[in-house]
Amino acid sequence: LVAKYLQLGRSQEYAEREVDEFLSDRERSEKYLEMRAYAKGSAGSGFSTELVVQLGLAFFLGLGGNVAVKYWAAYRSAFPDGP
């Protein structure tokens, strides 16, 4: 909030005083704080790069394990007594 006042050309002292007054008034600041909390909570609802990488690694690890088990089963059925 202080940064918004500074962008409008107000002084640092004026901005801090206005923001303190606004935040100390529960009626005026309650909706702002609720919107801010909601925005922070919903900002993390998208797919982040880390999540996509983790899901990709889990997929390929599962795929590799599945192929390895099927390969091993096929190998054992082709050579029941060993090579």
Provide a descriptive summary of the structure in words.
- With 83 residues, this protein is mainly alpha-helical.
- The protein has 4 helices and no strands.
- It has helices at residues 2-7, 12-24, 26-43, 49-78.
- The chain is rod-shaped, with a radius of gyration of 29 Å.
- The model has no long low-confidence stretch (mean pLDDT 86).
List keywords for this structure.
0% strand; 83 residues; mainly alpha
Question: Which structural category fits the helices and strands?
Answer: mainly alpha
Order of helices and strands: HHHH
What general form does the structure show? rod-shaped
Query: Which radius of gyration do the C-alpha atoms yield?
Result: 29 Å
DSSP strand content: under 5%
Biggest beta-sheet profile: none
Task: Give the low-confidence spans.
Answer: none
Brief sketch in words of this structure:
The protein has 83 residues and is mainly alpha-helical. 81% of the residues lie in helices and 0% in strands.
Topology:
Layout: H1 2-7, H2 12-24, H3 26-43, H4 49-78
